[in-house]
Design goal:
The chain is mostly helical. Helices cover 59% and strands 4% of the residues. Strands 1-2 form a two-stranded antiparallel ribbon. Strands 3-4 form a two-stranded antiparallel sheet. α2 packs antiparallel against α3, α3 packs antiparallel against α5 and α5 runs antiparallel to α6. The longest helix has 50 residues. 16% of the residues are buried.
Length: 222
């Protein structure tokens, strides 16, 4: 019996997205790069404090700064979500006591609780509206970036703010989400901002905070 296998082709194949760019992590091993590396080795020969040790010390210092800032951010997010949750439950508890004492109508506490939940969730949705890439845990997006896909606004300060505020309101609003996944994305944003830096912040020159040896794509994903 002869079997014929036919290829099934879709009727419409969407074109690849044009707004996404790929990132090359390969070093530029040109003749200029070879001469520069050779000159650095000759300069560091016989010296105790070399440029390689300086770069290593900078990497360890930046790692400490990134970990410290991420810990502060995670603590602030936990405190914010806990404060809002405690405030919500305190107000609803007072409304329940008023119902039991007959000072308010039946169901007012439930309606108040529903308003709190709806307001918190709407605030989290508004953060996603301001920056759509801040939705979700962010881990798949970070993996895409590490694989070479340059997603727009993935490592921006605006994304970090929307992420943290959105997570805090989502947890306070009772959504079945957690802070573990988003903390990975926020940590990646902090690492990118600290290691790469920006030329100016609100008109203030911040070029002195940049580390030239670490301002490469290959160093950014380490």
């Amino acid at each position: 019996m002869n079997l014929r296998i036919e290829a099934i082709t879709p009727h419409f194949i969407p074109p690849p997205p044009t707004h996404l760019e790929s990132i090359s992590y390969e070093p530029d091993e040109s003749e200029v790069w070879r001469n520069s590396t050779r000159a650095a080795k000759v300069k560091n020969r016989g010296q105790w404090w070399t440029s390689t040790k300086r770069t290593t010390l900078q990497q360890w210092f930046l790692t400490f700064i990134i970990g410290f800032l991420q810990a502060c951010l995670a603590y602030s997010c936990n405190v914010l979500s806990r404060k809002m949750s405690n405030w919500k439950f305190d107000v609803v508890y007072e409304a329940l006591q008023s119902e039991q004492e007959g000072e308010s109508s039946f169901g007012s506490a439930y309606f108040l609780f529903l308003c709190f939940q709806l307001a918190f969730v709407l605030m989290a949705c508004f953060m996603v509206y301001l920056e759509p890439i801040s939705a979700g845990s962010g881990i798949p997006e970070v993996k895409c970036y590490l694989n070479g896909v340059d997603l727009p606004n993935l490592l921006k300060l605006k994304t970090l703010l929307c992420k943290v505020v959105g997570v805090a309101f989502s947890v306070a609003g009772g959504l079945p989400v957690g802070k573990e996944g988003p903390m990975v994305h926020s940590g990646a944003v902090i690492a990118s901002l600290v290691s790469q830096g920006t030329p100016s912040v609100c008109g203030v020159n911040t070029e002195f905070t940049m580390v030239d040896e670490l301002r490469t794509k290959a160093e950014q994903v380490r």
